[in-house]
């Protein structure tokens, strides 16, 4: 199971992206999770993980969306702090 720190590390792989949502895609009886992001007017997907347990995929989707909201708030606070220093 993934924790927030690992989730955050995955999103930091694409620092230039602004992530706006989490998408769940079903493939071959598995659930794949992607972060949706925008960069220079181009929408992209960043793979997060795959779950084989279909019943827990909705709960994980909810958790990822909560974490994305937290990630975006933290990121905005960091940017604001950097701007104050300048």
What does this structure look like?
By secondary structure, this protein is α+β, with helices and mostly antiparallel strands. It has one domain (4-77). Helices cover 44% and strands 35% of the residues. The protein contains 2 helices and 3 strands; from the N terminus they run αβββα. It has helices at 4-12, 57-85, and strands at residues 18-27, 30-39, 42-51. A 3-stranded antiparallel sheet has the order 1-2-3, covered by helices on one side. A hairpin with a 2-residue loop joins strand 2 (30-39) and strand 3. The longest helix is centred in the C-terminal third of the chain and has 29 residues, at 57-85.
Set down the secondary structure blueprint:
Layout: H1 4-12, E1 18-27, E2 30-39, E3 42-51, H2 57-85
Strand count, sense and barrel status of the largest sheet are: 3 strands, antiparallel
Radius of gyration: 14 Å
Number of strands: 3
What is the beta-strand fraction? 25-35%
What spatial form do the alpha-carbon principal axes imply?
A: elongated
Question: Could you write a compact summary of the structure shown?
Answer:
By secondary structure, the protein is of the alpha+beta class.
List keywords for this structure.
3 strands; three-stranded antiparallel β-sheet; elongated
